[in-house]
Design goal:
With 455 residues, the protein is mainly α. Helix content is 72%, strand content 3%. It has one domain. The strands form two sheets. The protein has a two-stranded antiparallel sheet. The two termini are 44 Å apart.
Length: 455
């Protein structure tokens, strides 16, 4: 019986990762091919894939398997869900009222502001705060679908690259030992890609603005309308508390405790407790009217909790085999993904069609297996950050940026699309989104980023 995750990775067969692939493909395809079935039965689908791995895993490896399951629950899953639920609750308590003018200048300003905000309140939080004001500002516009698509590009994805709060993959990296402030070093990559995408948006927007009716173009200059007002501003202070709590847990670890047989630091436990207090404070102190106006419900976070429960359970063999390097069953992957540019496009391509959080973890393990096979993960991550940060840079930016390539690459994408369609915006189809926007806008931007940063 193996004693460590590295040894486990040398013993597990490649087909043990089938449940992981199955749940990711289910998340990607069922909402498109059978949306009614998925909405009704996704908890059963997630549970079935989890059971397909967990039951034989425990039967075969006994206490070692139970320890691995406890480890992924205590170290990854519970802190991950607590952070997402906190950001979701606090973000849902902020509402921007008032009349905005859906002109090119206002739209560019909203997209740029959302891009900056996303790293601090999360891509989901920033999207939920700004998408409805953006839609209200453009409700009389004939051409507005492109604005929503670029909003998905920038606010729901690219803007989340600077902190572990910004996008789920980066928080998982933080939980696995990447320093909190390390991601601030991605500012050059974020600035370049965001500037290219914003410039292309402005070109498209000016063309569409010229095609709008003269009455629509003139209307924003007539009358002041309702003044802008931010409801639920207390939640901004609570968001500052979230930033402080997460950053402090990276600076102060405290004593080590054992939870379900898994070593966990006091700093991490205090962080999670503080986040839960901030969540409760937001729920208690925010007016119900603000949440009603935001269309707030618990269903999105419930879905995330259920699906990621299945993902984190089934990802165990994939991560173990990747960490084993060329001694594991995924040796062909390790051998072919060699340079930072390979990691950028490989992690990005998978993040386009599968959830980018497990994709980040998979390629982080691939890099550790390639560069530091057999080294315990905490030491290997520290060495990766200090000695080969270009690999981590590529994995982080690829996973975050290329979640924008499709509607299913990142959780906020589909949420924004659904809200826009409810508001009467004729959004492009799944393949129309890729053909009309991803290929001509994002792929060239990512190609330039590869040449500048990983060439």
């Amino acid at each position: 019986m193996p004693a460590t995750p590295v040894e486990l990775g040398t013993l597990l067969p490649v087909w043990s990762a089938i449940p992981f692939a199955g749940i990711l493909l289910s998340i990607a395809l069922f909402p498109l091919l059978a949306p009614a079935f998925w909405h009704e039965h996704y908890p059963k689908v997630a549970a079935a894939w989890a059971a397909a791995f967990v039951v034989p895993f425990v039967l075969a490896y006994g206490d070692t398997a139970l320890h691995e399951l406890a480890h992924v629950a205590v170290v990854d899953y519970v802190p991950f869900i607590i952070l997402l639920a906190t950001l979701f609750t606090i973000g849902g308590g902020v509402y921007l009222r008032g009349t905005l003018r859906g002109s090119p200048g206002v739209n560019v300003t909203l997209l740029a502001a959302g891009t900056v905000l996303a790293s601090w309140v999360g891509t989901t939080g920033a999207s939920m705060i700004l998408v409805r004001p953006l839609l209200r500002a453009n409700r009389e516009r004939r051409y507005r679908a492109h604005t929503v698509v670029f909003f998905i590009f920038l606010v729901a994805n690219i803007g989340g690259a600077l902190t572990p709060l910004g996008d789920p993959p980066l928080f998982l990296g933080f939980l696995h030992g990447v320093p909190f402030f390390w991601t601030l070093g991605l500012v050059d990559e974020l600035a370049l890609v965001a500037a290219i995408v914003l410039a292309l948006y402005l070109a498209v927007e000016l063309r569409c603005w010229r095609r709008e009716d003269a009455l629509v173009r003139a209307r924003p200059r007539r009358g002041l309308g309702e003044p802008l007002r931010l409801d639920g501003a207390l939640n901004l202070l609570l968001l500052a508390g979230v930033v402080a709590a997460v950053a402090a847990s990276g600076l102060w670890h405290g004593r080590e405790l054992v939870v379900l047989g898994v070593h966990q630091s006091t700093g991490n436990l205090v962080r999670d407790a503080v986040l839960l207090v901030l969540l409760a404070a937001s729920w208690r102190l925010t007016s119900p009217r603000v949440r009603e106006d935001n269309g707030f419900s618990w269903e999105p976070i419930r879905e995330v909790a259920i699906l990621f429960g299945g993902i984190f359970a089934t990802i165990i063999p994939a991560l173990a085999m990747l960490r084993a390097g060329e001694a594991g069953a995924f040796a062909p992957v390790i051998r072919h993904v060699r340079e930072p540019a390979h990691f950028f496009w490989a992690s990005g391509t998978l993040s386009s069609f599968l959830d980018n959080a497990p994709t980040y973890l998979a390629f982080l393990s691939t890099a550790l297996g390639r560069l530091y096979p057999g080294v315990p993960e905490p030491a290997a991550v520290a060495r990766l950050v200090g000695e080969n940060h270009g690999f981590l840079q590529a994995i982080a930016t690829g996973s975050v940026f290329m979640g924008a390539n499709t509607y299913i690459g990142n959780a906020p994408n589909f949420m924004v699309k659904s809200i826009a369609e409810e508001a009467g915006v004729p959004m492009p189809s799944f393949f129309g989104y890729i053909a009309r926007y991803t290929v001509p806008v994002l792929l060239p931007a990512f190609g330039i980023a590869t040449w500048v940063f990983f060439g």
